[in-house]
Amino acid sequence: MDKNEEKRVTDRINELYHKKQKEGLTPEEEAERKELHKKFLENFRAGFRQQLEDTVIIDKNGKEVTSEKAKKAQREKGLRKD
Prior knowledge:
Blueprint: H1 3-22, H2 27-53, H3 68-76
Helix pairs in contact: 1-2
């Protein structure tokens, strides 16, 4: 999801939230809200996973202590040569 799509989804979720608080939602709007929320969470999780997989952890002595799972994901993406 690009930034424009993400903003559109977030704005619509907020719009439906405020409408729900004031007057309630129709069944169609409630279904739309659930679908948008699902889409938002999928995008958030994918971005968070990407960020974690790209993180390299160095301890206070300068030794890399990145988990093997993260190293494997980095190798698969071509981010590591080891």
